[in-house]
Amino acid sequence: MSTATTIDPTTRRVPALGGFSAGVLGIELKRMLRNRRTIFFALVFPTALFFVFGSGGGGEEKAGPNANVSAYVLVSMALYGGALIAASGGAMVATERALGWSRQLRLTPLRPVAYIVIKALVALVMAALAVAIVNVVGALQGKAEMPLSTWIECGVLTLICTMTFAALGVFIGYLVPGENVMQILGPGLALLAFLGGLFIPLSEYADVVRQIAYWTPMYGVAEVARAPLTHELPWYAVVNAVGWLAVFIGGAAWRMSKDTARV
Amino acid sequence: MMTTEPHHAAGPTTDAAVRLDGVRKSFGRVEAVRGIDLTLRPGEVVAFLGPNGAGKTTTIDMILGLSRPTSGTVTTFGMTPRAAIARGLVAAVMQTGGLLKDLTVRETVAYTALLFADTKPVDEVLDSAGITDIADRKVGKCSGGEQQRLRFAMALLSDPALLLLDEPTTGMDVEGRRSFWSSIRADASQGRTVLFATHYLEEADQYADRIVLVAGGRVVADGSGAEIRGLASGRTVRARLASPDTTAHIEAIRSLGGVDGVDVRGEQLYVHTKDSDAVARYLLTRTDARDLEIESKGLEEAFLSLTGDPHHDEQHLSEGDRR
């Protein structure tokens, strides 16, 4: 047996940025875009919903000082699509853990912080894509009317609001182990979207349903995202949006810290 | 405790590929590792041999920095396990999981390569792992053997100085096993240290320079294959001894070369020894021993006696209870 070591430990380097790189981000985005179910439910479905809800009769009516109902529906659908894709991105964290991939990554120089940054950026980029697609299709269709500045403000607020659902995705992913988290998140988010007034305005609901709806997670973010358009933002909608964000981040952090089992 | 001297003398700390000092690990009230001291030198191929639940996996997890010892220290190449992994010095191949089904084989290797500061070229690694022709296949569509080769490719990307393998040849056929070990030996001759966990005595004996036998969270034997086989190939000398100075004789037998242990059960005397001739000669010439028998211990039986298989003990207990 040779005693001479050709591997010299002192020459080895540690990667910059804890292993974070644009290349890894690229592969992660490619993974998301390859998933046909994600693409359909987060990119195609909200756009289709916009055509159903936002293009019918009454789309030209005013929904704010400078905007019409069609624009109002457009923002709602962009939020729905963005939330859905952000949630599925969040749920991937738990799925990867269940597959043992997280453990595999711990045998590489990748630091946990870099991993979380990558996952957050993937959720953000994908949500931005979902929001952008609904908005671009809406603009091309031409029924939605609002000033460009309002359009941009709504888009940015929508994107920020989708991060609540990225946290929800991580949380639910840990509660429901396995690869089919989306089968719970999909219908669950649709229900929340109904309750939050994304598909049908809350004013159409019975009083009892409306009182419940004010407490659900989509209500607050929807009001926040549409505020530049409606020029209305009840204080309890802000409390709702911030509260649910805190609940989901807290829940995700709690499940992740509890999770010390060896996989 | 039957612990022979390590095959190779331990070098200084910085020289050691792995160094465990008084390592203990508890999970709640369960003590999985109860004080392991171990030094591995560069280029050694070491088998970590022991029954399930011996503490092998727990120890490997600590060497990989996946868990921290409750007490004691673990260093790899003179640094913390995490620091060594960040430099691509330590890699491991686990038996199951650890792969994303929706990535292709090439993407998986490329992804892993991006996480390190320096790696070998992806194509070269794919080629040497023999998975170039399935490089564009989704991991979920690969067979178990192909996935295992992919795990090796990922582990060898950073050209690690220490490679840890958990039951590496499970599911391989004879030919696969042979080519696997010849490539591991070739890497070791370049200075790579290899520690593999196994519960097969035969595999440890055949492919390792050194066997570390663990049981009940401790190292019970440490030496070359020949030395471990020596421990395992002893015989038991059995005789009836009823003389008044039995105690003195037992002391004398204990001091004979090769005697591992002496049991007295009533008038029956059991001597476990590697030199049964010497014990038999003593008993027949110096005492009034009768009904002398010599039994050879099987390899597996000796292995069990060394590792103190818990099921073995339980069986004895329940038999005792019934009496």
TrEMBL record, chain A:
Domain ABC-2 type transporter transmembrane span(s) in chain numbering: 28-226
Sequence intervals crossing the membrane: 39-57, 69-93, 113-136, 156-177, 184-202, 233-254
UniProt GO cellular component terms: ATP-binding cassette (ABC) transporter complex
InterPro entries named among the record's database cross-references: ABC2_TM, ABC_2_transport, Nod_factor_ABC_transporter
UniProtKB keywords: Antibiotic resistance, Membrane, Transmembrane, Transmembrane helix
Localization terms from the record: Membrane
Recorded GO MF terms: ABC-type transporter activity
Gene Ontology terms: biological process: response to antibiotic
Name of the molecule in the record: ABC transporter
TrEMBL record, chain B:
GO annotations of cellular component type: plasma membrane
Membrane topology: Peripheral membrane protein
A GO term for molecular function: ATP hydrolysis activity
Keywords: Antibiotic resistance, ATP-binding, Nucleotide-binding, Transport
Signal peptide bounds: none
Location of the protein in the cell: Cell membrane
SMART domains in UniProt: AAA
InterPro entries: AAA+_ATPase, ABC_transporter-like_ATP-bd, ABC_transporter-like_CS, ABC_transporter_ATP-binding, P-loop_NTPase
GO-annotated biological processes: response to antibiotic
Domain ABC transporter: 18-241
Keyword Ribonucleoprotein carried by entry: no
PANTHER family listed in its UniProt record: ABC TRANSPORTER ATP-BINDING PROTEIN
Full protein name: ABC transporter ATP-binding protein
Species assigned in the record: Marmoricola endophyticus
